[in-house]
Amino acid sequence: MTDTSTLDLLLWVVLPYMVLAVFVLGHVWRFRADRFGWTTRSSQIYESRLLSIGSPMFHFGIIGIFFGHVVGLGIPKSWTSAVGISEHVYHLMAVTIGLAAAVACVGGLLILLYRRRTNTRVFGATTTGDKIMYLLLTAVICFGVLATVVHTTFGDYDYREGVSIWFRQFWTLRPSTELMSRAPIFFQLHVLSALLLFAAWPFTRLVHVFAAPVGYLTRPYIVYRSKDPRRESARRGWEKVDF
User: Fold this and answer.
1) 234 occurs within a structural domain
2) Which end of the chain has less Cβ packing within 10 Å, N or C?
3) 94 in any annotated domain
4) pLDDT at position 144 over 50
């Protein structure tokens, strides 16, 4: 076995399965050992104006990108053709919708990074894990945009005949190293940076993606009472309102 094929085996077979194990076991460990730290550690108390702009942009953009990846990676090319979606229509939809999601995601991320770096109090609340997370997240998004623009939009590479097939083979435990080794450089960097992000995921604030506030549906009401006796009502319950 040559050195090149050994490297391909490590990058496109061994590493992805190691990352999957770390991703799953890391979340189990984090939930059991740091359940109260399972949060985004909101910094809204320090600054809210830029956050109210950047956060919705980033989250809506990333949701659009996520569903785009679900379709592009999870659904075979033959399936979309079978339901009457031609390659031209699919490419047009991917470019227009994907571009809108990418612009929102990148724009929101830039606002959040600017806010975190320029606001002293927000930057002071930024941990080392946050910095690593933002670095990896930025790398994944940038390499993804470059791969789409350079190799797909203005290139001739069809990721649905390469990267997508490798992705589906991964879940059937038969990933082909050739499909990824022949992929353009920005697609390779996009996948590798995504693997690093998923490996770090359980140990960062990104765990909040898997947190659903189900308990709020059954949680009892929280009653707030004033400590100033002059502001408390003489009788319990609702005060009478005169019309």
Assistant:
1) no
2) C
3) yes
4) yes
Task: Decide: 155 and 149 in contact? Cβ < 8 Å.
Answer: no
Residue 180, domain member (yes or no):
yes
Q: How many domains are there within the chain?
A: 1
Other Cβ atoms within 10 Å of 109 Cβ, number: 20
Residue 181 lies in a domain: yes
- Over residues 9-14, the mean pLDDT reads 96
Host domain of residue 189: 3-215
Measured CA to CA, the distance from residue 24 to residue 81 in angstroms comes to: 34
Write down how long the chain is: 243
136 and 193 Cβ atoms separated by less than 8 Å: yes
Q: What is the DSSP string of the chain?
A: --HHHHHHHIIIIIHHHHHHHHHHHHHHHHHHH-GGG-S----TTT--HHHHHHHHHHHHHHHHHHHHHHHHHHS-HHHHHHTT--HHHHHHHHHHHHHHHHHHHHHHHHHHHHHHHH-HHHHHT--HHHHHHHHHHHHHHHHHHHIIIIIIISS---GGGTHHHHHHHHHTT---HHHHHTS-HHHHHHHHHHHHHHHHGGGSGGGGGG---GGGGTPPPPPP--S-GGGS-SSSSPPP---
Domain CATH code at residue 103? 1.20.950.20
